[in-house]
Fold this protein.
Amino acid sequence: MRKIRLFSLLFLTAACGFIPAFSQESIVVSTSETALCFRAEPGKKLIQTYFGERLNSAAEYETATTGFDAFPTFGGKAIGEAALRVVHQDGNTSSELVYESHTVTADGDVVTTQINLYDPAYPVQVKLFFIAYQKSNLIEQYMEISHTEKKGVVLYDFASSYLTLAAQNYFLTEFHGDWAQEMQMEEQQLYYGTKKIESRAGVRSNQYAHACFLLSENDKAQETSGNVLAGQLEWPGSWEMRFEMDQLGNMHIICGMNPYASQYKLPQKTVFKTPALLFTYSTSGTGTVTRRFHRWAKEYGIHDGERTRLTLLNNWEATYFKFNEDILKGIIEDAADMGFELFLLDDGWFGNKYPRNNDHQGLGDWETNHEKLPNGLGCLVKEATDKGIQFGIWLEPEMINPKSELYEKHPDWVITQPGREIDTQRHQMILDLTNPKVQDYVFSVVDKTMQENPGIAYIKWDCNRFMTNAASPYLKPELQSHLFIEYTRGLFNVLDRVREKYPDTHMMLCSGGGGRIDYATLRYFDEFWISDNTDALERIFIQWGTTYFFPAMALASHVSVVPNHYTGRITPLKFRFDVAMSAKLGMDLQPKDMSEEDKQFAKNAIQEYYGIRDIVQQGDLYRLLSPYKSRRTAMMYVTEDQNKAVVFSYLLKKTINGERTPLVLQGLDPDKHYTLKEINKDPKQYSWFSPLEGKTFSGDYLMKYGLRFTMYNEYDSKVILLEAQ
Ligand code: DGJ
């Protein structure tokens, strides 16, 4: 019997279905360009022998002489970071895992490898799962643990994944932030010891840091070259990512739910499943990372990834809480007239005993406010439909103001430590989703709103605080440390029900801006709100970081007023549109406050967006000039057939003599010829692009010589459409 079995062989022998594995020594998890290999001998530790670019000759995976424990446990001979730490019923704090068997299941593009491990001294089974997406070159790794120790075990560490790299140097890019400052990129070299990025927030767990990383080998991460490992943890609860450089210079990457204050008492015969780390290993820089994530997301990671995302007008910055039926009808009329496809009614439409006229009260009381909207939501849905656009509604069903009828009825439904002062954020508390009754209630908020107002096409699901003072009135005292994990599982139960009943409703994931974005949650959502910060300049940075992992089709980007409500910055309307058009275009302002000239510009811009929407929403993203490195920033999208592309270029700072850095394009077909056209022009301004207007160049020329035109003024922007002849 052959010692090695490779995916390619398996794929030939069974295109689809379950394949029992023979006794063997190598397991190869591979995609079309990456391989992750293990040495597996029954009764011995599982060893990672290879991780990197796929080899030409599969037989050579077997020749690896070095190796690393594939899933280290606490209590063995090693003292490094552990992936698993279990305390057994007899108090033994150690675990050992050895290989038992594995299976490989292929289903078209998706190949799942399951490796079964066990503890020789205790009845504990661990299964490692690797789901390899062949075309997009991404792999999901997660772990399941179960046991038959009668009195149960306690899990103290329970990583989803453990990977090891061996290189000369390592550079970590993290994506940190805060409210209105999401996805800020910071790169640093890692040295010996452990660097940890994490969230302890429980809910809205990306408030200060996003569960994403780039780890570049040898040198700083580059866009078009170099080896980079990139990962995103599919979990909206507390998470952690540990990067441990050992004394020999190897880098171990351990990701999963955050075990902080979350020790988990696991009863016998119960499976504890961890979320997946979604990762890719690129040998051609971070651009490849991004395109792989985006393509994967559209096929697997985001709800209805093929569907065109709608343009919309949101009334949040237009009115905040101050509106009534007439004001909204006016906005709906303007939205339709300007060419938007949907009107989204934000916060403030509910609450009667405690009208939601500010954020101090009413959250939880999901009945239309009679004073503001005497004819109910239905009348607004009808108004929108009559005007030819769709209607969307804002909900924040997981949260509650203490000043609400819901709190008066169910004070035992909120998360708070008994005997401690209530700790609110934005005057609100979190409903205890570990409680099935609360899950029913949260589902009913969505269901009731949808049933009572047929025709609602879109839901914005908000979540404006993280967990502090964290205790569940529902969980037993000895299970309080399960709260962070069970809350998230409760949320998924609700979302499963929502999606089962409302599969076609467009849903936006929002969390006080971008406080909750990950690929477990996005499977339920069509798009997300990345930041409350609508200042176009700041957005360039926020969107730049976000699109490393998440596609522009899902990234809602809205034009708002100037001076910007958050920063006071004044930028031209064209600049604001050009930034929003590089993602999913929307607007967050009162059209009545616009001049006729601006309105006309906006109408035209929306039509221009429809002309490039498919390229932006379904195309491949290429980053050309980073805003972190130069005054001029640029990126482009290219359709899969390379027939169309659109380039966005922005000038962040005025330059007296003109900014001339060439835009060396990427992703085109060198043999095709592309005609250039500037779109969304400002008729009042001379365009320094004019000499190139209507000209045709080969893809080869554009990707070597590039587009060369000067930009002078702060917040100058250009959108260039390329069409193959
Ligand atoms: C936070 C969101 O990010 C905003 O867009 C808006 O919906 C407010 N919440 C409403 O309270």
